[in-house]
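Structure first, sequence second, as always.
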């Protein structure tokens, strides 16, 4: 104790307080814990399972004890129509790949509520780092879903709306001017501030920059539960926690990391429980309930800005489609299982039932947001995109690393 007190004046202020408190209370540095005389191994399987927040059930009814956030009629119907638009566009481009008209595609079947429920709670100034399952973010919703933003990269047609063109992978569009960062396939590369040798201005690093600049916005990082098995996930959580970065980690747990089910990926209570180990507040939400996703995201954003701390949200869902057009998911899961989830837990059907129960449905029809009109619009845009002149392949092969960040 004498030695600790003797060196304390020469240490930084925060270390000085820690040393003096440790010397006086005999607690180990950085911790405060009770001492016990018995050998007891704590097993997480005996802990309570983290509950899943839900507002509306599978029938579209508000659950007993739940509070309807009472979103505006315009916002509810817009979210619903955009969910239909995304699913329609996925169907069109998936079929186009099977016909050999485009090279590759990844769908979001069964996970539409995650994209739009969370996107509707963000602000235009927030920086979004999305993965391939989130083709739509709050920035895109500001001007609705522009089909050509997603269709054009898949067909390699010339559409110079950002300087990354045409060096982006199919489904990896970007809207940099609207704070929508380019999508990635490299797992968790958007989570930390450093990936390999490439210093990138990405999620945790961007959030730390917002904090230093005292900006009133957050960084939002989307990724799947499979990406949470990467080491960069843990590094990013540790950086965000220790630096108190204003960032929202949004984990999409859809049950599969390509062909690996969650029961083979990890033990323990999902991904949300890992955030607690880093001192990050966590929440689990029903990813097929757009109201619950919206409410959790809205409150998380408020908490992040008020408390200057990161938050981790785990959205539970089910991947109804294949991982990509290069995958056949029927080889590792039963067709009956997929059919069951489509019939009972589809987020679009649940949203429609809610709108019917809340008497918003007739207003939606009057606004011409029905499926056929949306499908016709997407087909017209897709046909127009495929008829445009194709990008010279030399532009893709030459200088693939040249972009906005390295020019």
């Amino acid at each position: 104790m004498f030695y600790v007190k003797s060196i304390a004046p020469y240490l930084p202020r925060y270390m000085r307080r820690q040393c003096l408190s440790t010397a006086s209370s005999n607690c180990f540095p950085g911790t405060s814990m009770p001492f016990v005389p018995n050998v007891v191994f704590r097993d997480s399987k005996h802990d309570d399972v983290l509950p899943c927040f839900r507002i509306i059930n599978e029938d579209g009814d508000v659950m007993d004890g739940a509070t309807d956030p009472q979103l505006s009629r315009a916002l509810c119907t817009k979210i619903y129509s955009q969910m239909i638009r995304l699913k329609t566009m996925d169907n069109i481009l998936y079929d186009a790949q099977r016909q050999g008209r485009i090279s590759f595609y990844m769908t979001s079947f069964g996970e539409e509520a995650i994209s739009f429920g969370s996107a509707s709670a963000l602000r235009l100034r927030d920086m979004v780092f999305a993965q391939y399952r989130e083709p739509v973010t709050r920035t895109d919703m500001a001007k609705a879903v522009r089909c050509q933003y997603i269709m054009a990269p898949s067909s390699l047609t010339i559409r110079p709306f950002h300087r990354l063109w045409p060096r982006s992978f199919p489904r990896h569009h970007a809207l940099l001017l609207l704070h929508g960062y380019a999508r990635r396939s490299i797992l968790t590369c958007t989570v930390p501030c450093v990936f390999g040798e490439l210093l990138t201005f990405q999620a945790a690093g961007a959030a730390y920059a917002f904090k230093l600049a005292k900006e009133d916005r957050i960084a939002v990082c989307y990724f799947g539960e499979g990406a949470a098995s990467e080491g960069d996930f843990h590094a990013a959580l540790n950086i965000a926690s220790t630096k108190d970065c204003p960032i929202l980690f949004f984990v999409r747990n859809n049950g599969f990391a390509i062909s690996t089910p969650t029961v083979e990926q990890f033990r323990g209570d999902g991904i949300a429980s890992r955030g607690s180990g880093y001192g990050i507040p966590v929440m689990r939400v029903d990813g097929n309930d757009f109201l619950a996703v919206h409410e959790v995201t809205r409150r998380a954003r408020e908490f992040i800005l008020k408390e200057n701390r990161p938050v981790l949200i785990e959205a539970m869902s089910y991947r109804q489609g294949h991982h990509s057009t290069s995958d056949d998911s029927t080889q590792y899961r039963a067709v009956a299982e997929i059919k069951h989830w489509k019939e009972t837990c589809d987020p679009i059907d649940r949203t429609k039932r809610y709108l019917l129960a809340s008497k918003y449905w007739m207003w939606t029809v009057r606004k011409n947001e029905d499926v056929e009109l949306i499908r016709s619009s997407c087909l017209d845009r897709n046909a127009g995109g495929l008829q445009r002149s194709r990008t010279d392949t030399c532009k893709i092969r030459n200088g693939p690393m040249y972009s906005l960040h390295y020019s």
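Margin note: The domain at 48-397 is CATH 3.40.50.970 (Rossmann fold).
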